[in-house]
Amino acid sequence: xxxxxxxxxxxxxxxxxxxxxxxxxxxxxxxxxxxxxxxxxxxxxxxxxxxxxxxxxxxxxxxxxxxxxxxxxxxxxxxxxxxxxxxxxxxxxxxxxxxxxxxxxxxxxxxxxxxxxxxxxxxxxxxxxxxxxxxxxxxxxxxxxxxxxxxxxxxxxxxxxxxxxxxxxxxxxxxxxxxxxxxxxxxxxxxxxxxxxxxxxxxxxxxxxxxxxxxxxxxxxxxxxxxxxxxxxxxxxxxxxxxxxxxxxxxxxxxxxxxxxxxxxxxxxxxxxxxxxxxxxxxxxxxxxxxxxxxxxxxxxxxxxxxxxxxxxxxxxxxxxxxxxxxxxxxxxxxxxxxxxxxxxxxxxxx
Length: 351
Fold this sequence. Notes:
alpha/beta, Spore Coat Polysaccharide Biosynthesis Protein SpsA, Chain A, nine-stranded mixed beta sheet, 49% helix
């Protein structure tokens, strides 16, 4: 505890010496009912050692536990660093995060959820130095320690460098290999960010990656905590539950990516493949759980979009697969069943 207090005091002293300097890095953090973790998260921020000013913008999404009290405690100790936004009502993960993005004043932006933390006191200094030296990079990232709060499994590093050949926009679009708290972005315009999408971090990675290269620092400087209260916990235990809760928002995220890369046919093809896989998973969830009506909800929310998507896909199938055996296999798939269901109710869209 004495060491922590000394570190806090040093941080205050350093920032007093730089009162006239601009903010170089904005650390963005969103929280909701994370009283068990937020203190460690905030301590990992205020103990960062830098030769520049930085700020911590916290979007607390109307927490109902002691999270807000802990944030206020840090706000009082570090008024020049901690800049909280306390929501009057819960607005959701992506809306909360995208709102504080527009309030960031730093040249560079770093992220960390309220249940994760930085493990290296020179993390934001190291990453900002990298972006200074590599102006062609629109973002950079590093390795992250992944651990289970209940020690259910051994620690790992993400991403697995044995499974990644290159850090390109195309590779990132195919699979998200960036942990949110490992990334630092070069700030850009955030006026057109969408609302209510999941996963919001993958969208942000791609949003920035379209402007430049992806830089990599081969060093572990943050930790990602897996625990039962996190939004992606069920991905590990039961992926169907994630689809039940987030499938519609994930579909919307893919639609936003189609807009983002509307002029690139290769990227559109990759996104459409993601959409097809998601629709197949949604159909599976609806079939196994009669209480969910995700496909029905999709049709209601995006009737023209999903209808046209199915029509185009059906046409491509017939043009691409002339072999009868292959075509029969496709027609027996879940996705093609969705197409047939659409045909039955397409008169609704005409009305």
